[in-house]
Amino acid sequence: MTHSPFSKLVLKYPLLSLLQTSKKASEILQIQAQLTTTNLISDTFAASRLIISLTSGALSMNYAELVFSQIEHPSTFIWNTMIKGYIESSNPCRAFHFYCQMLGKNVLGDNHTYPYVLKASGMMLGLNEGREIHGEVLKRGFASGLFVRNALISMYCRCGDIVCGRTLFDGFHNRDLVSWNSMISGYVRCGEMDEAQKMFDEMPERDVFTWAMMIDVYGKKLGDISRGRELFDRIPDRDVACWNSMIDGYVNHGKMVAARELFEEMPKKNVVSWSIMIDGYARFGNSKEALSLFNQMLHHGTKPDKISTMGAISACAQLGALDHGRWIHTYIQKNKIILDIIVQTALLDMYMKCGSLEEARMMFQSMRERNIISWNVMIAGLGVHGFGEEAVELFAQMELQGTPMDDLIFLSVLTACSHAGLVTNGLDVFKKMASVYGIKPKLEHYGCLVDLLGRAGQLDEARNVIESMPMEPNSALWGSLLAACKTYHNVPLAEVSVGRLVELKADDCGVYVILSNIYAEEGMWKDVLKVRKLMGDRGIKKAAGRSVIEVDGEVEEFVNGERSHSSTEEIDLVIRSLSMMILSVGLIVP
Predict the structure, then answer these.
(1) Residue 19 in contact with residue 41, Cβ under 8 Å?
(2) Using CA atoms, how far apart are residues 242 and 260, in angstroms rounded to an integer?
(3) Is residue 489 part of a domain?
(4) Domains identified in the chain, total number
């Protein structure tokens, strides 16, 4: 393809003007069709504008590559655009492959090519590839350029060769903020925090990225949130990124009150600000606040991203808020939020935890791609809901497909077998862990085995597992055996279990309540009184019961004995009305 003498006039064509402003895939495809029918596509400049639009994210890189393959003699600019497109779509290996193709076509790179390819090398931690590019840069005489030199420093630092990165930095006097930030980031990545702090102090000037990076370092990597706050308070003109880094630091330390205070002080919030808070509340169990903040974000006109959506879905799963979860699912579909394997798995988990097995099955079946987490969520959910045989069948499918196994999958299958009473299947799965898949059972797996045998009434076998396992048993195992003793009225073994729990200092109110109930069921009233007196002497009180329910999209929480809820009087009225109705038909004696 050769440059047309009318290339300058091409700018005047409305089609190319439209191409610069069009963001939708349908519009870009229509313009491409017009460029083809009018033969403007044969012009290098027009072709380059089209490739820019195709690699902007509106269409897949596969389609962009298809169009690229039809260009007879792509210019260096077009090659660079394709390489950049693959980097921005997080496919550095393909970007590097394109660079190799470019060299194979005898197309020489320029001062824009090398920063892109060096970035690709850094992203895929390809130190050898990066060194080859460095040699090419030196041969071609581009080593003195600021952008290329910064790209080399960044590549070496990303790939862990901090010495080469520092050598380049020290040998280059025309540094800018990118040079300094790349070196500081490299020291942080290599864990050399003293050097990172030293360079930060030596910087002639700092930008928002520098401040945000150092706040993030102290807040997350070093766990020194106070030092992070000192840096935050020193920033002359705080950008939203600095606010977000500080808030994220508080959230990672579980300091949600301090994070919320800072969040409310923010002069301007972006989707990242909302996402940090929503995800934080969901992570630390304040699901109602996570959903409330998600709704506030929508009310403020901020379109949620994947992180905030995941936080809201997780909150729905924790609360059992099925209607709200369905609404978020619909919102994702209507607003074309990325529905990748991570979001799909979160939705699957939500439907399972909310008890909607059919919707969970539909989600699982619709997934084009499944990873170990997807399988685990499905198997664990089926087990919790009592569909142990279906869970075992799914596990068998995983084995047939050769899906890599991990210890969590075995934990889920064993739990499913336990809940469904599938002793033979459970024992078979437990044996396979080490003998077939080379996975050493952990304490949790032995716990499942004890629970499986205990539920099936094989109490002596369960005790043998506890006493013969290669590690010290914890309170959960003895607690599981105690629960089985209640079911099968085994008083002596129950007393042994309580004795072990006392030794482990895990004798909470629940333990004594179970023991008291076992004695009561056997008519051992003197022992019941002894247990209750012991609880009184130790000041042990039974924890108040709590329940959560979703009504018309609103999540309500009730605590046993608490009268402060707004619906208490209405609930009492309903109870009294039902009692009067029952009395009127003579079903109970007043």
Answers:
(1) no
(2) 15
(3) no
(4) 1
